[in-house]
Amino acid sequence: MSIRPLDMQTILPQATTVSKNQHAAEHQNTLQQQGFAEQLQQIADKRLHQIQNVPKNEQGRVQREKHFKEQHANEQQADDNQENRKYQNHSNEEEDAGKDPSRGSHIDIKA
After folding, report:
1. Residue 73 predicted with pLDDT over 60
2. According to the UniProt record, where is the region Disordered (predicted)?
């Protein structure tokens, strides 16, 4: 299909318009991507500075775990205290059993 001179005269001015439209369409995609990236960045910054809400079901679990840890620590401390008391009582009994009332008051010297 050949182009006639008359068609060439009408196509040439339209070529610049078509070129401008095509360039604008390509540039519009880039602008949309940049705008979308900027929105995502703003959302990420907002979430970073925002306090996260804990769902109620997780909050209960956290409280139960905290209560369990405190209770376990208290029980462990009570067990340790009881063992220390037993050890002290046992060592006091040994000291009391080893003491003789007559010991330490006289010195025996043999020549």
Report:
1. yes
2. 53-111
How far apart CA 31 and CA 56 sit, in angstroms, is 42
Among left, alpha and beta (phi > 0; psi -120 to 50; other), residue 54 is beta
pLDDT given for residue 69 in this prediction: 80
Q: What is the pLDDT of residues 5-18, one digit of tens each?
A: 777 778 878 888 88
> pLDDT for 84-101, tens place per residue?
777 776 665 555 555 666
Rounded Cα gap, residues 25 and 36, in angstroms: 17
Instruction: Locate 100 and state its tokens.
Output: 């003789």
Listed by start position, the domains of the chain span 57-87
Instruction: Determine the 3-state secondary structure of 104 from DSSP.
Output: coil
